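I would love for you to help me understand the pair of lines that follows before we discuss the fold together.
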Amino acid sequence: MGFSDIFKKDFLTAYTNGNVSVLQVTAVLLITCVIACYIFMVYRLITRKTFYSRTFNISLAAIAVITAAIILAVQASIVISLGMVGALSIVRFRTAVKEPLDLVFLFWSIAVGICCGAHVSEIAIVLSVLLTILVIILDRLPVGRAPMILVVNLEDGKSEPDLLKKVSEFCKYHKVKSRNIAAGRCNMVVEVRSAKEYDMVQAIESMKGVESVSLVAHDGEVTF
């Protein structure tokens, strides 16, 4: 046996942990499942998307458990860890994460899996509690109020100045987003922010030349 063989044997022995019992693996994965279910519930309560993605929420819980299993396997053998790096290097994920909050939950799930797999579940629990408090507090802070979308159909485009004058009586902020004129009729979309939304709609509807008026809420970016 040469020096290289002895070096390889000692190197592999030093980075191989064969003392991971089935009971320890089960306990780690069960703790990860509990925290993953917690992430599932928090995401369901906090998310405000119009179309809630149940499959993405389930994926968050599954990613935490899978990540914990990978970390346990990497700790068990350096050979498995090298093979895992090679296997993951050829994987291509093409699903785009459109919501920034979804990306936060995705990293949260991965972090929980890494912490639990590394036998530091306390960090995962403290992280989950503090992150939940942080997200809820920041979400409730009155940083800005999303404007409303006012859609008005006018019989005559010449009524636009009167319409904007009436809107300014109820709104400190308003901005014309679009103006569509066809066959003498005018369709306007105005971004407004008002504390008297019902009174404003009633006042505009009673104006001469107004065919219909709608006030729509949206979950887009806040305009300051």
In short: The chain has a mean pLDDT of 78. Strands lie at 148-154, 171-182, 185-194, 210-217. The helical segments are 3-14, 22-46, 54-76, 78-89, 100-117, 121-140, 160-170, 197-205.
